[in-house]
């Protein structure tokens, strides 16, 4: 069964995929600002989105009307070098006047912090960026974790994964975005990508349901099965 609503664009390498994804973000940002005066984007962790964000420097991007949110984040102090927020800020073009709304993962009461972040999100995000792990996770929706079954909250906590707990958007919140943009690169993602493209519910990414999705990948991730 093919993945409903998912358009796939295969690029020669990871740099080209990041560049094409950035162009799509900028296009959607301009459309959103023209349509309703602002653009809201939620960005996942990992290295691939940083390349995408850096590429936005060469595009006509309405930064002053843009607000960035986090799809997921490791629990830890502000100075923790593994925090996604640090990579996000470093990747953005210098001096761009974008507003960033970080996940409150330094809070003492993390359950309450999830509710606070859910309340800070707009009713509908214009665009959510998602990545794909070799194990099939996306956001911090991790294989076998109880967070996969959360349907009554937009933001939730995971159990320990790779030595860290995380805060993440849940499936219901992802499903309410106007659109989803996937960026998947590297040969290590090839098996998971094949499962995603067949809407395989055996991996967390395969359980994402949305009618407006575009996926940018490189030939290493695509293998021989995609044009």
Notes on the structure:
The protein is 30% helix and 19% strand. With 227 residues, the chain is an alpha/beta fold. The chain has one domain (6-207): Rossmann fold, CATH 3.40.50. Helix 2 (48-55) links the parallel strand 2 and strand 3. Helix 1 (14-36) packs across helix 2. The chain is globular, with a radius of gyration of 16 Å.
For this entry, give a set of tags.
30% helix, seven-stranded parallel sheet, single chain, alpha/beta, three-stranded antiparallel sheet, 227 residues, 7 helices, Rossmann fold
**How would you spell out the order of helices and strands?**
EHEHEEHEHEEEHEHEH
Helical amount: 25-40%
Question: What proportion of the residues form beta strands (DSSP E)?
Answer: 15-25%
The general outline is globular
Weakly predicted, low-confidence segments: none
Oligomeric state, counting identical vs distinct chains = single chain
What is the CATH third-level topology name? Rossmann fold
Strand order in space, largest sheet: 1-10-9-6-2-3-5
The tally of beta strands, per DSSP, is 10
| CATH class type | Alpha Beta
Helix-and-strand structural type: alpha/beta
Question: What's the arrangement of secondary structure elements?
Answer:
Blueprint: E1 6-11, H1 14-36, E2 39-43, H2 48-55, E3 66-70, E4 72-74, H3 84-91, E5 99-101, H4 110-120, E6 127-130, E7 155-157, E8 166-169, H5 171-175, E9 180-184, H6 190-197, E10 213-218, H7 219-222
Helix pairs in contact: 1-2, 2-3
